[in-house]
Queue: 3 jobs
Job 1
Amino acid sequence: MRKQSKQVVAIAVACGFLWGNSLSGEAAETITAAEQTRTQPLTNQEPVAIENTVQPDPQSSPIDKKTAEVAKADTAKDTPKTKKAKTQSDAPVTITADELYMSDSTGDVYAKGNVKMVQGSQQLLTDLLNGNTNQQELWIAGQADYTDTAFKAHLDAMDTRYNYQTKEGTMAAVKGKVDRDIISGESVVMAPTEILIHNGTVTRCPAKVPDYHMSAERIEMWPGKKMVAYNAKFWLGNMVIYSLPVYEQSLEPGAQGNNAYPTIGYSSRDGVHIRQKLEMPVANKFYGFVNLDFYTHGGFKPNGGVSYRQSAYSVGVIDGYYRDDNGNWIKKQPEFDFNLYSHRIGSLPISYTFNAAYGQWIDSSKTSWHKEYNLYFSHDVIHLNGRNDLSLGTGVGMIHESYDNSTIHDFKFDTTLTHTFNDRWSTWLGYHYTKTQNSLFAYDRPDMARELDTGFSYKIDNKNTFKYSQSYDLNNKHLYDQDYTWVHDLHCWVGSLTYRAKRDQWKFDVALKRW
């Protein structure tokens, strides 16, 4: 029979429910496992049914809660490894329960009643836990509550099994959240950097019965990076609106992502519109997409293309109809694009982007081979104090048209000062300058050479926000635009109604608030 402190270490090792982290201290010296970093999707693993629990061996020693905690602390103190800076992998493992047992002869571990296990950012709560140090496994036949603050995960599951040598675990009947995504699944496989959901669902609508969700036979999630779903179906309420063999979504913070659901709206110029984007990977880093846009005043205006995407840039070809914010239409047939994503200049607080395009542009009266490039520099937002933020940017560009053999050169400068009064009130003042000549096409061109824009936003309550904005033409000395916007929170959707007073136009849009 081991001494009490040694027994507690063995229990801590057996209960090292750390998905993706190595054991530390004396526990790590007792049981070691090779570090594994997963770079490929998980295999189609299913959880093993758990039918029986291990009862305490008559020869095992009971350990009371207080002794377990003290022994863990003493062991950590005597271990040289604990003297270095603590990291997630160095974090000690602690387990508390109403009853704790450890068998030296069989390696069985038994914890019952208010079982709580903690290591680093992870916590496991259950009523009954079994494990075996010889098999390097632990299992929970009943309900378990798992939290990982690093993954921002909180899951409720049944039939949990974990092998701390391979660092993979399985769960059944899972419900919970991973970051912003609300998930469920018949079974879930956990790995150091990946979560695999079988026959599961994902949504960001917190309603008891979600307004929308995606279901799929297999969902692979890399929290904070991306999600890939296979044989995915997209639901509005209880109705499937479409399905895709493969669907990919960015999970990076701030990513706009691929909106899988349609937007509906109205504008005085285009009438009622319905827009739907469909996108799917077609090969390694190659993606195909199509935008199915319909306007009652303009008819069916689709566009689509193929793009090759790397972490630093993308290259693609597009074809179809495109509309800018002012309602100017162009048909690209086709256009080749190169986009260099934002890159920082050394250690400076300045980043730059670059894009280039070449293709045939067509409007109602002319056709031209259009060549364009733009280079733009942005300074990090300057926080003048707790309430004022200053944004600065400048850039150059070039446009050449074959129609009249014209070439124009752009120089741009933009600055905006934002002041936040409180959580409800904010206002802004911006100046925008563009040195350019008249271009052949009006599509996506600035309305003014020197523009002063200002406005404010006021949050009336948790569901309603009012915004006012105006644009002043400094060259011609007149008010160019004056917009009034009401934004209403529809729980999982958001609606916005805008009146453009200087143009006497209305605009209304409804889209998902969360996806």
Job 2
Amino acid sequence: MVPLFLLFYLNVQSITADSFTSLVHLQQSIDAESDIVSYINTYVRAEFDRLAQLEGLAVELADHHKLLKKGNTERHLSNPVNAFLLTRQMHDLVSDSVDLIESKSQGNTVKYMQSTESLRSRLPSKDDMDGAVLALLRLQDTYSLNTSQLSDSNLGLSSPADEAPPLSGDDCFKIGQTAFLMDDFYHSVLWFQTALEKYEMLDGSLQWVQRKLTSTFDYLNFSLYKQGNIERAISIATRWTEIAPGAQPGTDNLYHYRNELNETGRLYDPYNLPPLQNQQLVTGFAATQEFKKYTKLCQGQQLPKSSRNSKQLVCKYRPIQFSYFPSEEEELHLEPRLVYIHRIISDREIQVVQALAKPKLDRSGVFATNAATPLGGIKTHTRVSKSAWLGDEEDETIALLSRRFARVTGLTVGTAESLQVLNYGIGGHYEPHCDFARPDNPNVFDHGVGNRIATLILYLTDVEKGGATVFPRLEAAVWPLKGGAAFWYNLDENGALDERTLHGACPVLAGYKWVCNKWFHESGNEFTRPCPASS
């Protein structure tokens, strides 16, 4: 659309050029005076309206900021719905303000754009918006939450003060639209239906409500059709054409659906629609039995093997070399051995680690099965967190922790990797994987240190809901407990890859999750964990 001020400029140019050469043309200029007045008035009204909208955005943002500052912002954002709403609101408010201000004079536009440019790196982008939606969908699937629970922000948190406000129809529409654009019609059906329910609670006689209904009908009818619900697609398309008779796509869809239904020999009965079909299409690892075990373990279910195994597990104190205090170990699995070590890091040390890591946090990556993997790995939705690396030389606390880890595990840290610190965001997770390098990816680690022989994961925070480290093949789960750590060997005593150590980080449903990884390598540990005599 051409801006109003440009229309005004173009019209002025067209009536003044060469008008002085002819009284007729000059007369036409005089006659056009009323048009000029009309254009100016239209422009002024549009400007007042634009400025009023801009002022409204400023008031809305100020009120929201005051509300956030009154409470505990960290606790507020630990709720994934609150985090999603803040991401969406900040993204939309800035986008709306830019859209409004870009229509102003060129000088003010440039000035505003320059002043906001430095903020853009600190504000949610479109990718952030899409990521927040994917996080909610991941939480919905992993923890079997129905759409009503999520849209009503009913996560069953321990404190009512931590609950988020219900999602609006627009919020639900945005989630459905994001799923739709990824051809995820399973989720788009769920969320467009919820959006429709919320819009139907509004005054349907208002034009802006009708526009929202029309948009929802547009997406929902096709989503239903793609999921095999042709009668229900006809029902929605019919409502679409009733509320917007001139909507050609709705008319075309209705014609197509009816023809297709006639070919099946079925009759359309608006009062007796078939049950909703909405099967979720899962492929790859998500379709395996191991992934199903992963999901059940994330939900806190106890599987048969873990139930049998638990009868033989014990908690014990184990002496530590050069230390007056023994290690408090809790066995979680016997073969391969998986233990939880209590109170391995203090609150003060946790604060130091977090303070050192925060300025360095960057999106975590994964290693591909080829030598072309870039430094830091490949960014992917299978791993959603930010990480930083801390070497012993950076702070005495890090060096002290490394020495403690060596005493507790009995392994040398001379060839170990730097301490990796991770912070998980909305729905942050890491799908099941093994920590060792496979033969087809030998260049992941530095030459001469060998493979990752063992893993130590430290939990720097308690997590209110979700966030467990689960082992599908062992049917075991480790729940985050601040100050503790999980330890296991990735290789067996002969140095072979132990595929049973497949593990994943469950999505964080509520709360903050900070962890550290310390990976030990084969080199230097030949005598700390020698091969069995029979090998």
Job 3
Amino acid sequence: MLKRYVEDPDDDIIRCRWATGYDECGSICHKFSATLDENACKINYQASSIGWFAVALMIEDFSTSRPTTPLSKIPLQFLVVVFNSSGSCDTVPQFVNPTPGDGTSINVPLNETYFMQIVVYIENANKENVFIDTVSPLGFLKSKVGELDGRPYYFYVNISWEPQSDQLGDNIFCFEASGGTGFVLNRSLYKIAPVINCTIDQITSIIPLVYYSQPIAVDDLSETTVDCFPVSGSRFSIGSTTVACTSRDGANNTASCSFSVNVSSEVPNIVCPEGHLYNSPEYVRFNVSATDKEGDVDITCDHLTGSLFNDTTLVTCVATDTTGNRANCSFIVTIDTEPPVIMCHEDKIISTEPYVKYTKPTATDNYSSNPTVSCHPESGSVFPIGDTRVVCTAIDEVNNDASCSFLVTVTNYIDVFPPSITCPMNIVSKSQSPEWVIPEATDDQTQSPLVKCSKSPSQEYPIGSVNEITCTTSDDAGNGASCTFTISIESETATKIKNITQEVTEENVEDVSQELDQYLEEVDVLEPVDVVVTSVALENIISLGSTNENVTDAVVSIVDEVVGITELKVPPQTTASILNSFEGQVDVIANSGMNYTQVEENIAVQTLNLHSNAIESSLKFVVAENSTCLLYTS
């Protein structure tokens, strides 16, 4: 079988027939005894003798409207040689990559050089008997046949072509390979694309709505269309966007060019709220704001504020300014109906002591990163003998909760721990019957131990008195505990002392201390409460660490006035506080290196800054009779 490949640029109907008459075939008419398939242009021949045989054909094209009258015709004449061969006719050359496939349509730009390589595999062939023949448009260049390095039986030719303007449209290129005992034919269709020119490289705009002129396309054979995307008049994003334009001619050949659109205008500033979290479907109100330097801003959201949200939903809002610039933001409305996941670490804890510590469980949640976990009784609590169930609960941000529990078993043990009791703070009151509550006691074994106090909360006290109240308790095992506090009923003198010293600073400490000293000298009688309030005032003065000599004089004088009243019954801690304040102020003076001497009715103070040799001499210190003397050396 011999097949002749024929093509028509206009896609007309093509038929092959035997040439007839002297004008068409001369002396070779009907010299080849074979059958012809006119529509497929196939010749079927059964060789019966060897030799050369001439073949004469006419190729004709027909329009679809008149399929019997040929539009044109061309002769095709060739020779067929029949010979004896020892090889197999089944060995057929094979075109391989990168050879274009049969019937491939290739777009070739005008006035640009196109390169192609045709590669064929022919088993057991050598370069000398391999032929790659071509039928091509004007201007095709073909190299000699070569063999690929390192690949035996792979043969190639290189093709190059620079189409000219008069070749616009479809151009048929056929090639065949032969060698060994067979041949193969292939063909490709080269299409010359139209010429398109984007006249600019870039468009710059301050608004996103951009219009531009369509590029111009040229084709010598047919009208062209030009399509660009994004189209002119589109809304472009802020920044650079590439516009791609494609031209298409009547033969469906295409060409492209592109340019960029750069939008430099500023977008509005839009602010969305933080995400909303609920544990059930909810009507949610939210506020989205936006500003823009160019004026008013229109805000639209894909869900309206006040809408009912049944599921977790992403809400997106868009702000558009007066020039069409847009900005968007998003937030999530979360409907969380799932409780946290909590797992207790153990099922049971056995302890021989009532104070039991355990590890608090951890919890996870689908939305809350750290669910709150609380247990009751708490770790470190006092547990009674026997079994106590500890219940731990995890709560997420929207109050979904989950719980787990475990047992704490406390075995029998000897109770040697006393109850715990804490009295109220010391009370200074103008009321003669100030309010206070009998303290409660706790115990590891005895539930709510009984508490007794030396005075009742309803008792009335005289003005100026300082009253000590002691509260005691004991558990069932006889372990006892107590605490003490004082109730002082404020006098007019105590109120005055508090007013003088209510605000002591480094700037006014000299004035305050001297004013307090002068006032106490004028008081005829001091009540116990006055001494208590004075002790607090001295603590405030001494805390400033003043080295002012006048401050020290006032402190020594104040202490002399209160410690000389031996008949007053004041709490021991009050007396200790006064003496500590006195020694603290003298320490400040002594450590500053000052030689200081002060003699009062009940107290005398002297500080000396001595050389070490003086201590070894026969220096004597004389102390006045009935006086308390403090001697400081440095």
